[in-house]
Amino acid sequence: MAQQVQGVIARAKGEPVRIETITVPDPGPGEAVVKVQACGVCHTDLHYREGSINDDFPFLLGHEAAGVVESVGEGVTEVAPGDFVILNWRAVCGQCRACLRGRPQYCFDTHNARQKMTLADGTELSPALGIGAFAEKTLVAAGQCTKVDPDASPAAAGLLGCGVMAGIGAALNTGNVGRGDSVAVIGCGGVGNAAVMGARLAGAAKIIAVDIDDKKLETAKVLGATHTVNSRSSDPVEAVRELTGGYGADVVIEAVGRPETYEQAFYARDLAGTVVLVGVPTPDMRIELPLLDVFGRGGALKSSWYGDCLPSRDFPMLIDLHRQGRLDLDAFVTETIALEDVEKAFERMRHGDVLRSVVMF
Ligand code: APR
Ligand code: ZN
Ligand code: ZN
Questions:
Q1: What backbone torsions phi and psi does residue 196 show, to the nearest 5 degrees?
Q2: What ipTM score was computed for the predicted complex, to two decimals?
Q3: In sequence order, what DSSP letters do the residues of 117-131 get, joined into one string?
Q4: Residues flanking ion ligand 2, Cβ below 5 Å
Q5: Is there an atom of ligand 1 within 6 Å of 278 CB?
Q6: Atom of ligand 1 nearest to the CA of 257
Q7: CA torsion angle for 181, 187, 189, 193 (degrees, to 10)?
Q8: Among 4, 269, 299, 359, which residue has the least CB neighbours within 10 Å?
């Protein structure tokens, strides 16, 4: 039996979101219905609401979520009713060239649920990032559910579904930060501060946090930064060089997504160092670099897509570390809110007041 639940809907470009009744169909083959327990408010939700991702309104927002599988469709073996799961953006095929080469984040054949959730009048909804978890229940592909230790707090677990995973993964998976490395993180919002935590987890000796906001730098210190640089008051490239004996950092992680910070990241690394780009630029942005600098600096320039994560490998591992007190996911939960307060949370996000607001059900 299809079910009716409440969900946060963005109807049109720039309009405030509102709560509406939605219909969640029974799971079909390869699908699962998940009872959502917690869902973080991410910038991408706001981007959907503002129409800057695509025009497929109406959207059912929310995508950083954890919950319990309620029912599964035919042929589902990945998860069973009662499993505590973290949702990921899309199920990967496991068989294409990208999957076989160990880069599943570039899978050629990802999928989400085939059926659509709908509004009361039958209008089909576009779930944010193929999830749509600002709702009491949501329909996803079973492969989007990763089972983790049920003792983990849902608020902390849900965060691994997006921004925090992107940051930790930028350090661990894309940057391959190693024991004793020096790491600079440019931009210490939710993603950058998660990268700081990832660098600490990997055993980095120096973790230099760079931001224009002292509040964010304070948090970075709590999460493991050994040095902080406010790039409003000092040149971050010079500062990183000074702090690394004149060389630059072994790994520089850019978590802003702007031309000036991309350029800073490029020059703040050691000649053999790695630049990890996790901040997402807009289509109009450009940088210009002397080719001799591109040639003369070895190392690597890598973009990090969803923290190069493999959910089935990374989610349970990070939840275990969290449960052991070695990964402070709770530090990212600035506030827990009700479903009705998502619009207010967007406002706070615009002011840079929060790392994460998390809707609890
Ligand atoms: N130099 C350094 N830090 C900056 C600068 C700058 N020029 N401009 C902004 N910042 C800082 C902000 O002060 C803030 O702390 O960058 C941080 C951005 O953080 P959030 O707005 O919380 O964004 P977040 O969710 O962390 O995402 C950052 O990563 O995955 C991408 O799409 C995401 O592009 C976005 C980026
Ligand atoms: Zn694939
Ligand atoms: Zn997100």
A1: -60, -45
A2: 0.98
A3: -EETT-PBPEEGGGT
A4: 92-93, 96, 99, 107, 109
A5: yes
A6: 34
A7: 10
A8: 4
